[in-house]
Design a protein that fits this description.
This protein is α/β, with parallel strands linked by helices. It has 14 helices and 13 strands. α1 crosses α11, α3 crosses α10 and α12 packs parallel to α14. The chain has two domains: about 240 residues, Aspartate Aminotransferase, domain 2 (3-Layer(aba) Sandwich); about 90 residues, Aspartate Aminotransferase, domain 1 (Alpha-Beta Complex), CATH 3.90.1150. Helices cover about 40% and strands about 15% of the residues. β5, α7 and β6 form a beta-alpha-beta unit. The two termini are about 20 Å apart. It binds ligand TLP. Ligand TLP binds next to α3.
Amino acid sequence: MIDLRSDTVTRPGPEMRAAMAAAEVGDDVYGEDPTVRALEERTAELLGKEAGLFVPSGTMANQIAIRTHTEPGDEIVADARSHILLYERAAPTALSGVMPRLVHSERGVFDGEAVRGLVHGPLPGMPAGLFPPTRLLCLENTHNAGGGSVWPLPQFAATVREARRHGLRVHCDGARLWNAAVAAGVPERAYADYCDSVAVCFSKGLGAPVGSLLAGDRAFIDRARRFRGMFGGGMRQAGVLAAAALHALDHNRGRLAEDHAHARILAAALAELPGVSIDPASVETNILYFRLRGMAAAKFGEACEARGVRVLAIGVDTVRLVTHLDVSRTAVDRAITVFREVLSS
Ligand code: TLP
């Protein structure tokens, strides 16, 4: 089976499993797991931050960040189709009691003006303290629902600058910051330098089975540790998982450009097929979306699955494909053959 639903579907290979089996471990809630510590230090350094906190998932990393930056009754600003607002089960309201204010953008990438428009200014004649404080800006890079889009670094910097002007703190959902860095040709920390906190995932393009990390300054991470415990994310001998993440950093970060090339090949082939709408030029990293005319996405998905290719029917007429470690060039060619068969049958 060729699984193009997500880059979360990768399975650890023999070398990664060997690294996991050999990991030195301890009770991480006591701070005694040397492999977790090594991962936290290494990733924080890579992101140019003082400290890191290993957590089970990207969702938890984002939600701990929101809880740590805010107090109930605050507002946060995020793209309307950000993962934080679209796919995290209303956690910002349920767990942090914050009010989300939405930026409506084309591909999840916007500018300072959009932020400025959502921050309340003092209004003469209105009571002081009428509006809740707007505390946090959340940016996503790459942007999943935006089609794996990459923030151009100067635009990222300018948007953050405007947010700072209004006293906002800044969190980056960098589940796929690795991909953004490769596509933009800059180190991850070039983006991270502008942010107070960054969440990165090891379980997506990097191919580890589990694990994400939240990075920030020491005081932020100390406070975040409290909320990791509150949200049930304290793990014990988590070194077996951290070892997989360290292995992923060493071996799988350097190959992400291959996934991006595979996504471009898929997009170019799809653009030639009847009944498919896709702009190949919009494919910047390892995620692509296309629309179908004349066939429901779910039906397309079933027909592909019957031929050994899994895709994600993400809407009535929209399909998502994600390339990753376990999708070879041969698999890409096979998937294209299957798409052609299904759409011409
Ligand atoms: N995204 C998953 C699904 O939830 C949609 C996927 O298959 O793409 N931030 C971003 C930008 C993400 O894409 C994801 C996962 C997360 C956070 C959450 O990570 P996990 O699944 O580890 O909680």
